[in-house]
Amino acid sequence: MRDVRDNLDLAQLKEAKQGYIANLRTDMKKLHRAWCESVGAMYPGAYRKVFFEDRDEARRWLDTEYTSARWDSCGKCFPLSN
User: Fold this and answer.
1) In the predicted model, is pLDDT for residue 81 greater than 60?
2) Would you say 3 and 27 are in contact if contact means Cβ atoms under 8 Å apart?
3) Alpha carbon distance 38, 74 (integer Å)
4) Which helix (H) or strand (E) holds 58?
5) Contact between residue 54 and residue 19 where contact means Cβ atoms under 8 Å apart
6) Which burial class, exposed, middle or buried, applies to 8 when counting CB atoms under 10 A from its CB (0-12, 13-18, 19+)?
7) In 10 A of CB 33, how many CB atoms?
8) Distance between CA atoms of residues 77 and 45, nearest Å
9) Integer angstrom CA distances of residue 66 from 7, 48, 71
């Protein structure tokens, strides 16, 4: 697990097509596959993005940091599962 540093870092993660990114907005937390189009660009001070190597690690961290009612999986890259 690590923070996504900037747009270059994000672009490299998307290009690698491996891993998962959590968008940690104040109004919602979403877990995405790293290459999902819904991840969006980095904007300074907007909200934190965290990269995970695997989905189980991401889910454990999100469940520890946020109640399961406060985060969800992206409907575009995880259409039928959470």
Assistant:
1) no
2) no
3) 8
4) helix 55-65
5) yes
6) exposed
7) 19
8) 25
9) 25, 14, 7
pLDDT in tens, 43-56: 877 899 999 999 99
pLDDT tens digits for 5-22? 999 999 999 999 999 999
Residue 28's alpha-carbon distances to 3, 16, 24, 31, 63, in angstroms, are: 17, 26, 7, 10, 14
Torsion of CA 3, 58, 61, 56, to 10 degrees: -150
Domain boundaries defined on the chain: 2-73
Q: How far apart are CA 60 and CA 54, in angstroms?
A: 10
